[in-house]
């Protein structure tokens, strides 16, 4: 029955000592509410048929004829709902206390969250990024804090979810029921790479865990080593701004545009995003995604005042992912200060300042 309900509700497998209890309360609430909804539907349908208005019904029953049964039913319904509320509250409170009260022999692991990674530190001195090694069938207490914004530590198979708050410590504990690799997610929006803030819990058999602590990487199970390799590869993958810088270098954008605010052949990208750009012939444009994309694909459509129309069109030469990465690069340096717009003389980069530089709205 447990597996059937779990599959019907699209829940992941239960891989911790408390996961079954959490799901049990979930099933109880779902079944009671669905049963109550079905009962109300049946009673409403019965009343609709039994007491439907007929043409020959011209007399009105005595107003007090059903007062006593109605009062009894209402009282019974109120007591029933109150009993259900107290039952849900009692079970939920007990589970909340259980999740906040780890066993005495729990292993402490210190968790630090930051944009956008999880760092795990062990009392023995080991530190890991994005991969949490724990012994199976032994309680583990996580002592968590954040270095920047609010995050949320969530392991679906363990049924644990705990907010991680800067400036304070929060705790949660679990006991993995069997060895395996289980994903860690951040379920509190924490910035542009929130969806990439992932990790893994690697639950090892007690003997394998002791060998891992002793540095015996060769004895690590194959599934654990594969999961760790995937996590390391994901952590090493460049971010969107980094991919944008690689794309800009590959397409020779950085020959004319700078990232540090100095002026060159073309406008600097520092401080450009969402800035007000003066145009040749009058008028202004906000340098948003549409303006940047248009400037890449059709640079002669709108000309930045103070710069020569020397940029070629990249239409058909640059892929959409590279355009998106370059835009993210420009966004990432929007707070870098930039100098005045100075026309480039083709030799020294000097010249008289042009009127109407970039202004920030």
Provide a concise account of the structure shown.
By secondary structure, the protein is α+β, with helices and mostly antiparallel strands. The chain has 8 helices and 12 strands.
Q: Return the average pLDDT rounded to an integer.
A: 81
Low-confidence stretches are 343-361
Class of the largest domain in CATH? Answer: Mainly Beta
Fraction of residues in H or I helices: 25-40%
Instruction: State the CATH topology of the largest domain.
Output: Immunoglobulin-like
Strand content: 15-25%
Rounded to an integer in angstroms, the radius of gyration calculated over CA atoms is 32 Å
Query: How many domains, as an integer?
Result: 3
How would you describe what is shown here?
The protein contains eight helices and twelve strands. A hairpin with a 2-residue loop joins strand 1 (107-114) and strand 2 (117-121). The protein has helices at 2-8, 19-50, 67-100, 206-213, 222-236, 240-250, 289-297, 320-332; strands spanning 107-114, 117-121, 127-129, 131-135, 140-146, 151-155, 160-164, 170-174, 180-186, 198-204, 276-278, 284-286. Helix 2 (19-50) runs antiparallel to helix 3 (67-100) and helix 6 crosses helix 8. It has three domains: 2-48 and 69-100, no CATH class; 107-236, Immunoglobulin-like (Sandwich); 242-332, Orthogonal Bundle (Cytochrome Bc1 Complex, Chain D, domain 2). By secondary structure, it is an alpha+beta fold. The protein starts with a helix and ends in a 29-residue tail after the last helix.
């Amino acid at each position: 029955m447990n597996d059937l309900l779990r599959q019907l509700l699209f829940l992941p497998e239960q891989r911790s000592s408390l996961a079954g209890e959490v799901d049990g309360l979930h099933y109880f609430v779902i079944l009671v509410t669905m049963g109550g909804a079905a009962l109300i539907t049946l009673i409403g349908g019965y009343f609709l048929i039994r007491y439907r208005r007929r043409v020959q019904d011209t007399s009105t029953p005595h107003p007090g004829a059903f007062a006593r049964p109605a009062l009894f039913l209402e009282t019974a319904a109120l007591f029933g709902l109150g009993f259900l509320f107290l039952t849900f509250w009692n079970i939920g409170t007990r589970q909340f206390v259980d999740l906040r009260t780890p066993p005495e022999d729990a292993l402490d692991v210190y968790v630090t969250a930051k944009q956008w990674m999880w760092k795990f530190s062990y009392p023995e001195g080991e530190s890991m990024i994005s991969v949490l090694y724990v012994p199976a069938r032994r309680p583990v207490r996580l002592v968590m804090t954040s270095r920047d914004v609010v995050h949320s530590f969530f392991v679906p198979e363990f049924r644990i979810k705990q907010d991680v708050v800067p400036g304070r410590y929060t705790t949660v504990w679990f006991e993995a029921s069997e060895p395996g690799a289980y994903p860690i997610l951040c379920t509190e929006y924490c910035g542009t790479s929130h969806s990439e803030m992932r990790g893994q819990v690697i639950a090892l058999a007690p003997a394998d865990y002791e060998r891992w602590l002793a540095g015996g990487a060769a004895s690590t199970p194959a599934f654990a080593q594969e999961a760790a390799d995937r996590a390391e590869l994901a952590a090493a993958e460049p971010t969107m701004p980094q991919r944008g810088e690689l794309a800009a270098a590959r397409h020779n954008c950085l020959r004319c545009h700078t990232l540090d605010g100095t002026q060159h052949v073309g406008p600097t990208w520092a401080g450009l995003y969402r800035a007000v750009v003066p145009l040749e012939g009058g008028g202004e444009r906000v340098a948003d995604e549409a303006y940047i994309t248009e400037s890449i694909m059709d640079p002669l459509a709108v000309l930045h005042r103070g710069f020569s129309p020397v940029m070629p069109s990249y239409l058909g030469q640059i892929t959409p992912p590279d355009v998106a990465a370059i835009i993210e690069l420009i966004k990432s340096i929007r707070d870098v200060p930039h100098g005045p717009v100075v026309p480039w003389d083709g030799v020294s980069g000097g010249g008289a300042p042009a009127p109407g530089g970039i202004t920030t709205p």
